[in-house]
Amino acid sequence: MNDILPLVLVTRALPEGWLDGLRGRCRTVVGDAQTPGFDAPLLEALPDAEGILCLLTERIDGAVLDRAPRLRVVSTMAVGVDNIDLDACAARGIVVGHTPGVLTEATADLTMALLLAVARRLPDAAADARAGRWSTWSPTGWLGTDLHGASLGIVGLGKIGTAVARRARAFGMRLMHASPGPKPAVEAELGVERVPLTQLLAQSDVVSLHLPLSSDTHHLIDARALATMKSTALLINTARGAIVDPQALAHALHTGAIAGAGIDVTEPEPLPAEHPLYGCPNLLVLPHIGSATHGTRRRMAAVAVDNLLAGLVGSPLPHPVLPPRAPL
Ligand code: GLV
Question: From the CA of 4, how far away is ligand 1's center (Å)?
Fold first, then answer.
């Protein structure tokens, strides 16, 4: 009986219960929890796989797909799909699903956490306290930036960008966005002004990135873009590391071209411990934890399971990957 169930590769083992929805619906070959990519058992099973449930750590490209002639669906437990060659999937009739929506609030929370931490210099202040450098209350110690009244430039006013706008408004920030198209309802509700990217970069006290990585957005924030920012400005990135040129960012921080940055995503990932970015002043690096809450990760797994099961039986995916929007 089990032999007639479709074979699914789960590229990384997930905690007990997260994939319960697969039980009785497919056979699985499961990769190691800590090891990204396709290990030997996964590679061996690829020729028979009809579905893949992957994470953002797996590259799904033509070379992988060529080894999987029976594959019908790729379901990633992530909203970003830059690790998947969508054209190669489409050319083979393979549908792709992802997990938008369920991680919006958690990622917006983390964006605000980074923004607050960098604006108020929490890493420096906490390190000094712990190291015994807190000798007295100081009127000039650990001075940061006021958020109230500061302008926030949101690059990409999608679901997460909008959730960040809502939070930032409650902090009394002035809002603008640069996006491929207008968002009249959100703009009116939250008082967000749509401006060209160049204007957003030049006028924002904080720039926060919320757009997908594509060939159009790769190194969108390069040396030239950073040079147009205020020297007092902060850069926050919870989208994808490669949207920012890391060398240009390091240079901008070292030379004081911008005042600080908080990045949850890097290029490459993981960022090696010896990477020059770690030596930059007023830079907070997090290990890609935007969606890392118990509830959010469970919901992402449930959506990934729903997409996978729909794809296996040839039904429309609840959350298919949509074609990319025009560039900014
Ligand atoms: C996380 O970065 C995601 O794309 O879900």
Answer: 33
Per the prediction, the chain carries an average pLDDT of: 97
Phi-psi group of 232: left, alpha or beta (phi > 0 → left; psi -120 to 50 → alpha; rest → beta): alpha
User: Residues of 204-229 as b/e, b for ≥16 C-beta within 10 angstroms?
Assistant: bbbbbbbbbbbeebebbbeeebbeeb
Q: Are 183 and 221 in contact (CB under 8 A)?
A: no
Determine if the peptide bond prior to 270 is cis (ω within 30°): yes
Q: 279-308 burial, b if ≥16 CB within 10 A, otherwise e?
A: ebebbbbbebebbebeebbebbbbbbbbbb
Q: What is d(CA 12, CA 30) in angstroms, rounded to the nearest whole number?
A: 6
The letter for the amino acid at 135 is S
Tell me the CA–centroid distance for residue 111 and ligand 1, in Å.
13
How many helical (H) and strand (E) elements, i.e. helices and strands, does the chain have? 11, 12
Tell me the average pLDDT across 226-254: 98
What's the pLDDT tens digit per position in 14-64? Answer: 999 999 999 999 999 999 999 999 999 999 999 999 999 999 999 999 999
Whether the Cβ atoms of residue 273 and residue 115 lie closer than 8 Å to each other: no
Residues recognised as catalytic: 240, 269, 288
Contact between 175 and 191 (Cβ < 8 Å)? yes
DSSP 155-220: E--SHHHHHHHHHHHHTT-EEEEE-SS--HHHHHHHTEEE--HHHHHHH-SEEEE----STTTTT-
For residue 325, pLDDT over 90 is answered with no
Place of tokens 């792709």: 96
Residue 218 in this model has a pLDDT that exceeds 60: yes
Is pTM beyond 0.90? Reply is: yes
In this structure, the chain runs to a length of 328
Pocket test for ligand 1, best of 57, 77, 107, 293 (most atoms within 8 A of CB): 107
Residue written as token pair 């919870």: 238
Q: Is the pLDDT of residue 1 over 50?
A: no
